[in-house]
Each structure stands twice: as C-alpha cells, then as structure tokens.
Design goal:
The chain is flat. The two termini are 42 Å apart. By secondary structure, the protein is of the alpha/beta class. 39% of the residues lie in helices and 21% in strands.
Length: 547
C-alpha cells in the first residue's frame, strides 16, 4: 500500500538513518520502536508528508488516505467539542461532489472500450465504496461513541475547546482522525494523555478496525496488545519483524546469538585457511590447495553481527538528607472548584522511605493533591510537611516549560549553583548529552530527551521527597527501566502518579486509589492491590467504578 524506498535523513552532518526500505500493507498494525532521538517521530512525519527526507522516496497510492496524530498539537479555539469533532466528516461533501462529477463524465463519454473509460469506472467504484462505507445516518452516534470512549462526558460536548487542557484537546484531534476511518493511521504517542480506561477503548478500536496503523508508543502493554509487526529504528538502520514487540525482542536475541555463532565459526575457518596458506605457500605439492584457499578467502562473504546500541542513561539519585519520620501528614484534606468536589476528607500519613503510587482515572484529583502538597493551590483541611523535607518535583508539563531557545548546557548551567557546576559536563554525559550533543537547542529535542533534561534538574540538589507526576510519558522502554531501577535504589520518600502498571509493578509498596471524590489507602503494591480487587488490570477497576 505505502512503499518506503531508500530513505535517508541527515541533520547538520549527522545521519539519522540511511537507505531504509519497507512496505506498509493493508491492515498492518506496526509498532515503530527505538530509543529517544533515534528518528521515530521524524520517520512518521515523512510518512505523513509533513517532512521531506534527504534522499529516497515514499510512494502513496492516490486513493490511499493517511491521517497523522503528532505528539504536540493544539485544537483551534472558537468551537465546542462537538462542533470541532464533527469536522471529521467535512470531507464527505467533497467526496460526494467528486463522485457526481465522475458519474457525469461516464454518462457523456462514448469511448466505452478505451483504457481511460475503464480507469474512470474503477475510480468511481473505489470512491463510491469508500463513501458508502461511511454510514452518514449514524454520524452523531459515531461521534458520541468516540468522544465517550476517549473519556469525555456528555456534559463536555457543548463546552468550548478552549476550556480544556492540551491533553484533552489532543483527544479531540484523535477522535477526528478515528472517525475519518483512513486507510493508514499514523499515531505518535497517542496514550500519553489517556487514562487506562481510554487506552483500553483505543486498543479495542484499533484491533477491530480495518485501518493500517503505525504507532509510536512507550507503553509496552499497549503496543503488545495492538500490534502485529515491529520496526525498530536503531543506529541508522531498521529491523523489521512480523511480531509483537516482546516477541520481537526474543527473536532479535536469538538472531544475534546465531550471528555470533556463525561469525565465530567463520573466523575459525578463516584462521585455519590463513595458517594453511602461510605453512604451505612454498611447497610445490600443495600449490593447488594453497591457491584454492586464497580464492576461497577472496570470495568469502564475511558474516556480520548486528550492531547493538550500548548507549544508555546512567541515573543514580544522590544520598538523601535525613527528613523527619513522617514527611507528609494529611488530615481531612479536600479540594473543590465552585460546586465541583474533586476529593474530600483525605487523611493519610506517608512515612520516611516509603514509595507510594497515586492511581485512578483522569480528573479524579491525583495531580490536584500533588499541587496541594507543593503548596501551589489552596485546599481544605490540614496538610503538614515533616521536619527537613526537601522536595524534588517533576510535573506533567515540566518538559514543555523548558526554554526552547537555550542549549542543553545552558539549561543546566543557568540553574546549577556551587560545586555541582564543576560536574555539569559529567552529568550531561551520563544522560547521553555528552560532547556536541550538549550544544543542541531544546527546541530540536524529542519528547523523551526533554524528559531526560528535566531529570538532570532534579539531581542538581539532594532531595528526600521525590514527587513524580507521569514521569514515563515520552520515555523509551529502556530508559523507563533505568529510571525505575534508580527509583528503587533511591533512599528517600517517593510519590509517583502514573497510569503505567508495568512501571509501578515492583516499585511501590503502598497504593492510593482516587475516585468518587475519595482517596482510599491500600497497604500494598499495585499488583497486590489489583489482586485484592479480583481484577487483572487497572482498567477493570475503573470500569467497575464508572458503573
């Protein structure tokens, strides 16, 4: 359907990828994987036609419709949620006009046997099939289903889009794309702004639709559930397997082991041949065998072992200054906006060294309680921080608040004080921003690279209470695993807000469940919490609460 041939992309003398080729077939569901900065988003932009490669070409059939959801996009103001979403069907009128014009040609032309006439019939047939596949009598129903599936309430439909955060506006754009039912859907981090219930709905939608999908996501469970093929971009090359990501990792490991064995066997044969040549090159009776070995060596195709990307984040939080026994004590804490109660009567105590998770649907108050702890907003009840509590805070929008005109080095140099300023280059190197990388401007960084930069800011001063609000958005899977291990080793107190069950599993020992205006404490990790609820994932919990 879409053919990618000999694609090369270069930026300022650096080759992002070189001479890559593959084909996107109908109904393919492809996970585009790779570490942050490998070129995944760039490749998706090229497939969408919004960016041009240095060389090579992308061939898209004329009748093939492609829709693209970028990482960062803002919906225009001036419309309600419903008015903006129903724009997804504005193309139907144009399609109907084109079909009518083509049918008019068919009735007036008389060259019935010509190739042009047959091509015209085929074009009308293809367009008509697409047009009538969209049941326009159920447009309102489809819009409602899609908006509800993505987490909107019916009361939101007539609200202005300007009243919603960037994440919710992104959901409106996603709804518009899904309603258009394109032949190919290109999604760049679609789950970053979705709660678990909406992620589950999107999984089901993509699996049941006939649309081909190419998706970038660092949600391991999501991509394993929806994709049937994995293309990994690494070291300027691609590896393409018809397998889920987890299965692909196993296949790649097996392939590399086979390559290493074949390489070792071949090197042994080469060494034996060279030894034979050296030993008998002056012996008349062995002349034929020597020449045969020389020719064999000249014609030999050397076995190549796939390069492995060994660059990795080196993250370790400094030792924490000792805080009081109870860094946070909450007594009947609540927050309301006008008549809307976000949560109320929240009472709990977090002890020194505990690692806890805040879980629940979007809008139930997780980030609001974090802002109360940070004293960013006023609240009801008493919320007390313990003795000598020093907080390191990563907010959901931390990455977007960076000054885009500064370089990576300037970003850290401007806020570092004291002896730590002597170690800035070492810190940048440990976060894969060494050498010339540190001179890049923030505006050219990928989402994951910006998150890494924000993490460096957390390390500039020792802290004993880390509060991380959705820290894994935009992080590649390997970096996410490294962050998780660093948090396990962190000797202070941790509060993490996340929808990522894999990330929370084995990290936290206490879970706070947000929902229905309440904050409920569970004295166990996420896996045990789910077992108690007799459910296998957080989405099941959320569906039960909604019922």
């Amino acid at each position: 359907m879409i053919s990618i041939d000999g694609l090369t992309v270069e930026f300022g003398g650096t080759t992002l990828f070189k001479d890559i080729s593959f084909v996107i077939n109908p109904k393919d569901r492809i996970a585009l994987m790779g570490k942050n900065g490998a070129g995944k988003s760039t490749l998706l932009k090229i497939l969408a036609g919004v960016q041009r490669p240095t060389s090579g070409k992308v061939s898209v059939p004329k009748e093939c419709s492609v829709c693209y959801l970028p990482q960062h996009l803002m919906t225009e103001d001036g419309n309600t949620v419903w008015e903006e979403t129903i724009k997804a069907f504005s193309h139907l009128k144009a399609m109907e006009d084109e079909i009518n014009a083509l049918n008019e040609q068919l009735t007036t032309r008389t060259d019935y046997e010509s190739d042009d006439y047959m091509a015209l019939i085929e074009k009308v047939s293809t367009l008509s099939e697409k047009f009538y596949a969209i049941d326009s009598t159920h447009i309102d129903e489809d819009v409602e289903k899609t908006l509800l599936g993505l987490g909107f309430e019916r009361s939101d439909f007539q609200r202005q889009t300007s009243e919603f955060s960037g994440g919710w506006r992104m959901r409106i754009e996603l709804a518009k794309l899904l309603l258009q039912k394109p032949d190919v859907l290109l999604l760049d981090e679609p789950t970053n702004h979705l709660d678990i219930e909406s992620i589950q709905w999107l999984e089901d939608f993509l699996i049941e639709s006939a649309t081909a999908v190419v998706v970038i996501s660092h949600d391991r469970r999501f991509i394993d559930n929806i994709t049937t093929r994995t293309i990994e971009v690494t070291l300027g090359r691609i590896y393409d397997y018809k397998a889920t990501y987890s299965h692909y990792l196993e296949l790649r490991k097996e392939r590399r082991q086979q390559q290493e064995k074949q390489y070792a066997d071949q090197q042994k044969q080469i060494a034996e041949a060279k030894e034979f040549i050296e030993r008998f090159k002056g012996t008349y009776s062995k002349t034929y065998q020597v020449q045969s070995k020389v020719k064999w060596l000249e014609k030999l195709d050397i076995v190549e072992v796939d390069e492995e990307d060994t660059s990795a984040l080196n993250l370790r939080f400094p030792p924490s200054p000792r805080s009081g026994q109870y860094p946070i004590i909450a007594d009947n804490v609540g927050k309301s906006y006008d008549d809307k109660v976000i949560f109320q009567n929240a009472s709990f105590t977090i002890e020194r060294g505990e690692k806890v998770a805040f879980v629940g649907r979007n809008g139930e108050g997780k980030s609001t309680l974090v802002k109360c702890i940070m004293e960013e907003i006023k609240h009801d009840g008493n919320l007390k921080l313990g003795h000598n509590v020093q907080i390191g805070y990563f907010a959901q929008n931390s990455a977007s608040l960076l000054d885009e005109e500064k370089t990576i080095f300037q970003t850290i140099d401007d806020i570092a004080v004291g002896d730590i300023r002597l170690k800035i280059k070492d810190m940048l190197g440990a976060f894969m921003f060494g050498g010339e990388e540190s001179l890049k401007k923030v505006k050219v960084l990928s989402g994951g690279e910006r998150v890494r930069l924000c993490m460096i800011k957390l390390l500039l001063e020792p802290v004993n209470l880390l509060i991380l609000d959705e820290p894994t958005n935009h992080l590649d899977l390997r970096t996410k695993d490294i962050l998780k291990q660093a948090l396990r080793d962190f000797d202070g107190t941790l509060i993490v807000v996340s929808h990522d069950r894999d990330f929370l599993s084995g990290l936290v020992s206490k879970t706070y469940e947000f929902g229905g205006g309440r904050v409920k404490e569970h004295l166990c990790g996420v896996d045990e919490f789910l077992q108690q609820k007799k459910m296998d994932n957080l989405a099941e919990l959320e569906r039960k609460k909604k019922k």
